[in-house]
Amino acid sequence: MARIVFEPIQLGMEEMNKSLTPIYTTKGPAPAKIVSLITCGCNKGCGEKCKYVRANLRCTTFCKNCRGQSCINTEAIDIVEEQDEEDNDII
Predict the structure, then answer these.
(1) Alpha helices in 1-91, H assignment, sequence order
(2) Are 46 and 65 in contact (CB under 8 A)?
(3) Residue-wise DSSP of 55-89
(4) Within a domain: residue 54?
(5) Do 54 and 48 touch, CB atoms closer than 8 A?
(6) CA angle, 63 then 38 then 69, to 5°
(7) Residue 68 Cα distances to 38, 42, 71, 75, 81, angstroms
(8) Contact 46, 66 (CB under 8 A)
(9) Would you say residue 87 lies in a domain?
(10) 39 assigned to some structural domain
(11) 60 close to 68: Cβ distance less than 8 angstroms
(12) Residue 67: how many other CB atoms lie within 10 Å
């Protein structure tokens, strides 16, 4: 069976300064129409005009104004710290 060997240049790499680096995409994460469906587009606060608020959804990182972090319409993040089993041992 013949073995196929691919060159890194054919697989999305480019040679820069005598080393290979990945070629990053210049395209967005999704077509603009889809992005507009999932982003709220709010410029000031996420109030009654916000797509997310009207749809009874929480803001996410796609929210243009708050990025899902700085408004009252975001979901609280619970941080759970794990304990090692060794920490619970009583000597």
Answers:
(1) 32-38, 51-54
(2) yes
(3) TT----TT-TTTTTTSSTTSPPPPP-----GGGG-
(4) yes
(5) yes
(6) 20
(7) 12, 12, 7, 8, 22
(8) yes
(9) no
(10) no
(11) yes
(12) 13
* Tokens (6 digits) for 78: 């619970």
Q: Which residue has the tokens 């997310």?
A: 52
58-72 pLDDT, tens digit each = 777 767 666 666 677
Q: Which residue has the tokens 């796609």?
A: 62
As for how many domains the chain has, the answer is: 1
pLDDT value of position 9: 82
Supply φ then ψ for residue 20, to 5 degrees. Answer: -90, 135
The residue type of 8 is: P
91 residues of the chain, pLDDT tens digit each? 788 888 888 888 888 898 999 988 877 777 877 776 767 777 776 777 777 777 777 777 767 666 666 677 666 666 667 666 665 556 5
pTM of the model: 0.37
Does residue 62 sit within a domain? Answer: yes
**The one-letter amino acid at 86:** E
